[in-house]
Amino acid sequence: MSSAMKVKRLSLDDFSKIKEMDTGIEDDYVVRAFENLLHRPDNFLYGLMEDERIVTVAGYSVFASRFAILGRLRTDRRYLSRGYATKLLLEIIEELKINPTISFIGAATNEPNVSANKVCRKLGLQQLVTFHSLTCRDFSKLQDNGPTWTPVETVNEKRIRLQALKENALGMFPYECYYPLPLSERDLSDEYLHRMTCYENHDSSRFFFIHENQKGEFYSQVKYFWNDLFEQKGLWNTIAHHVQQEQSIGWIDLSPEAFQNIKQPEIFDIQEPWRLYGTWT
Predict the structure, then answer these.
(1) Rounded-to-integer distance, Cα 56 and Cα 19, Å
(2) Which end of the chain is more exposed for a tag (fewer CB within 10 A), N or C?
(3) Per-residue DSSP letter, 196
(4) Rounded to the nearest 10 degrees, how much is the dihedral formed by the CA atoms of 248, 180, 47, 9?
């Protein structure tokens, strides 16, 4: 490894170097959103430099003040298989470990992505949970004739529902699309709860949250914490109505058990299974 290699927190001045990277990624999100990524206070982007060339990029986003999720990893194809991705991420992790505000360091990757899973293990991150993400443009195609569920209006009422949650089949909280977190109700701010819409069924035994996310496409992400999605009357009608109102694409995360019981899979776009890795600091 070249003695001239160094890790640098990237700035707008590095944009031309980012564009010079040969990653093989068409319409690379890091290139397309570079300025926005740098301007957001909860996003951090780093480059591993060889002399004045960026050979690897990675970064992290901070959620709920104390959860750092690694991502945006890509390496110039001319520098693959040299351990550069691991080197850069290890340095980022060491920086995060001495940050007193960070309690958790994690990463999410698709199950078939062998290299990314290998990197996570090299970083000392433990596999915490596997889950499935599905999207759908028309939930009304699901055969559900039940009544729509009732909105839960206030932040306090939403928080009470979460405090009473005795089980979470997902094993994580889907904070945003692509960003699962092992957090508790205490980590959710009033402002975050205010932005989420909440619905509950007629006997208040089940509820779900739905939250709009702009991730290239405009999504309404459903947060439901049980495995009985296809047994609850009115659940899918309520989701369909909300998604139609928002003119969005529905997104829902399922546990492996719930995924095995999926009905009408043909109406969903099904991603490869995801794995959440992480460690507490």
Answers:
(1) 12
(2) N
(3) S
(4) 90
Instruction: Collapse the DSSP code of 199 into the 3-class scheme (helix H, G, I; strand E, B; otherwise coil) and give the result.
Output: strand
Q: What letter does residue 141 receive in the DSSP assignment?
A: G
- Candidates 3.20.20, 3.30.300, 3.40.630, 3.30.1360; CATH matching 132-280: 3.40.630
CATH number for the domain running over 5-102? 3.40.630.30
Helix (H, G, I), strand (E, B) or coil at 16: helix
Show the 3-state SS of 162-182.
HHCCCCCCCCCEEEECCEEEC
What b/e sequence results for 188-222 when a residue is b if at least 16 CB atoms lie within 10 Å of its CB, and e otherwise? beeebbeebbbbbbeeeebbbbbbebeeeeebbbb
Average pLDDT taken over every residue of the chain:
95
Alpha helices in the chain (DSSP H): 15-20, 29-32, 34-39, 84-97, 114-122, 155-163, 190-195, 235-246, 256-260
- pLDDT tens by residue, 46-95: 999 998 999 999 999 999 999 999 999 999 999 999 999 999 999 999 99
**What band does 128 get if pLDDT is binned at 50, 70 and 90?**
very high
Domains of the chain: which residue ranges?
Answer: 5-102, 132-280
